[in-house]
Design a protein that fits this description.
Elements lengths: L4 E11 L8 H10 L10 H13 L3 H13 L5 H10 L5 H4 L6 H14 L9 E10 L2 H5 L7 H10 L6 H11 L16 E2 L4 E3 L1
Length: about 200
């Protein structure tokens, strides 16, 4: 039986940061990396503000390097971070960097740099979409349990696009196949909540 869903867009908005991507502990660790010193007198809100001030005390390219080193030193070599730091003022690397598996993390880096230097770094511009997905038949209902994942959502979005859309051109084989290892590079985070017997809010 062919699966069939009815999809309704509940909301669509541009975001400059991913909720929860940075915690107080992240800011505290970054302050340590920037040699801020004693943080005992700082409130949780102060730690973010002091991170921004500490970054503003550096040249923009050096600030970018320091955030990259802290956030992505586990996946990038020093030379790569230096090169990326030099490009971040001109390029939206969360869209354009050759390794799309790093786009989400580069978006988070870009968000902090934009907050510190709003006139020098590109404005982050990811999209948050909320969908109501209704399973029309039993085969479709089976795909809503367990909760939908990134491949499910990317395929759902692709079904609503023209055949010549960029998503089809780049990922046509994976969209048509069983495995879709790169889906999480297209849709970064999926949160699914049951909204009825055959309905899921994603």
């Amino acid at each position: 039986m062919k699966t069939e869903f009815r999809v309704r867009v509940l909301s669509f908005s541009n975001i400059m940061e991913i909720e929860g991507a940075r915690t107080v502990d992240h800011y505290a660790a970054l302050l340590d990396a920037l040699d801020y010193g004693d943080q005992s007198g700082l409130s949780d809100d102060d730690k973010r503000d002091m991170c921004l001030l500490a970054l503003q005390g550096l040249e923009p390219e050096e600030a970018a390097y320091q955030v990259l080193k802290h956030d992505m030193g586990d996946v990038l070599r020093d030379g790569q971070m230096r090169n990326i730091a030099g490009e971040m003022q001109e390029e939206k690397l969360w869209e354009e960097y050759s390794n799309s598996a790093l786009h989400e993390r580069l978006f988070t880096v870009g968000g902090l740099l934009y907050a510190a230097f709003p006139n020098l770094f590109p404005k982050p511009d990811a999209v948050r979409v909320e969908l109501e997905v209704t399973a029309v038949n039993a085969a479709a209902k089976a795909l809503l349990s367990p909760a939908p994942d990134e491949p499910f959502v990317v395929r759902l979005l692709a079904d609503g696009m023209e055949p010549d859309a960029v998503l089809h051109r780049l990922y046509g084989d994976q969209l048509a196949g069983v495995s879709f290892p790169e889906a999480a590079e297209v849709v970064w985070i999926v949160r699914a909540v049951p909204a009825g017997d055959n309905v899921m809010t994603i």
